[in-house]
Please model this.
Amino acid sequence: MDVIVKSVAQIAGAARLTRKAQGIDQFAAASLSGNSVTFISQFENGKTSVEIGRVLELLDQLGIELVLKLPLDQAELKPAQQKLLHDAIYGGA
Model:
């Protein structure tokens, strides 16, 4: 199921729904993702200033993939721009 995300609350709601559907409580989700129960609770209740890295770890542990659709056509980018894009996504040397 694909969801177009416009807010932290949407991500949090999807994470909460997935967690509950999998029969995982907040304590277990916290343990699996290396976060605290307080963090899980704050995130699921829509706190907008949560750390993105911690959210990504939680989503990964729940099996949720976060996909970015960039408004770029890679074929139209100049080689230097393609390198910048690659380095931005995969990390540059």
Notes: Residues 35 and 54 are 7 Å apart (CA to CA). The mean pLDDT is 93.
